[in-house]
Design goal:
It is built from seven helices and seven strands; from the N terminus they run βαββαβαβααβααβ. The protein has a seven-stranded parallel sheet with strand order 3-2-1-4-5-6-7, with helices on both faces.
């Protein structure tokens, strides 16, 4: 059981239905948070502490602005939405790069900006999701790595800018996570070496908690046994 008390606090979680998202939503619900889940498609219906916001394109500036403006005062905004695409560099098109920047950087940028506007004057927590690929050089997925490195810079620069507003901004950088999609894509891998979504969720929960009173601008590696 979580010892973090977020009772009655409103939290936005993008990508809440993804491989990591389920674990994050579960962790925050256990801590008493009221979770708002923006989704592109219509997902499961809302419940007492889970409010699904369907039909949203998080790369659309006006859509994101309107969504945050319509929310009650929020304590935290967590940006899990993203995607992976890998191929050799010489086969990577400009369209491939732009697509990765859109899904990984643009979504985080717009949500960070609107979260800051919503939190202005009251403080809060923002957590982005980067990747080990942004911190540990490797080939085969440069467009993805570049987009996630941009999320690192977004996190660190924003943390400095909003520190006087008592908004703490951090990121986690997981390695390959043990999700059904990754198991299907890499069936011969050693799953025991992969990071568990619940482990990443625990790191996000602490960074977004009231107990975190000083850490901002950090990019926390969550590598498991990799």
């Amino acid at each position: 059981m979580s010892t973090t008390n977020l009772n009655g606090r409103h939290v936005v979680i993008t990508g809440g239905r993804g491989g990591l998202g389920g674990a994050v939503v579960e962790a925050f619900l256990a801590a008493g948070a009221i979770c708002h889940l923006p989704e592109r498609a219509a997902g499961p219906a809302s419940s007492a502490n889970v409010h699904v916001i369907p039909g949203l394109d998080l790369t659309n500036e006006e859509t994101v602005r309107s969504m945050y403006a319509g929310l009650p005062a929020i304590w935290a905004s967590l940006h899990l939405a993203g995607g992976y695409a890998g191929k050799p560099f010489v086969q990577t098109s400009l369209a491939d790069l732009r697509a990765q920047l859109d899904v990984n950087l643009t979504t985080a940028f717009l949500c960070c900006r609107e979260a800051v506007r919503k939190m202005s004057g009251s403080g809060g927590r923002i957590v982005n999701v980067s990747s080990r690929a942004a911190l540990v050089p490797a080939g085969g997925s440069l467009a993805y790595a570049v987009s996630k490195a941009a999320v690192v810079s977004l996190t660190q620069c924003l943390a400095e800018e909003v520190r006087p507003q008592h908004i703490l901004v951090n990121a986690v950088a997981p390695s390959t996570m043990d999700t059904p999609a990754n198991r299907a894509a890499m069936p011969k891998a050693d799953f025991n070496r992969w990071t568990k979504p619940a482990e990443v969720a625990a790191a996000i929960l602490w960074l977004a908690s009231p107990q975190n009173t000083a850490t901002s601008g950090a990019v926390v590696p969550v590598y498991g046994n990799a």
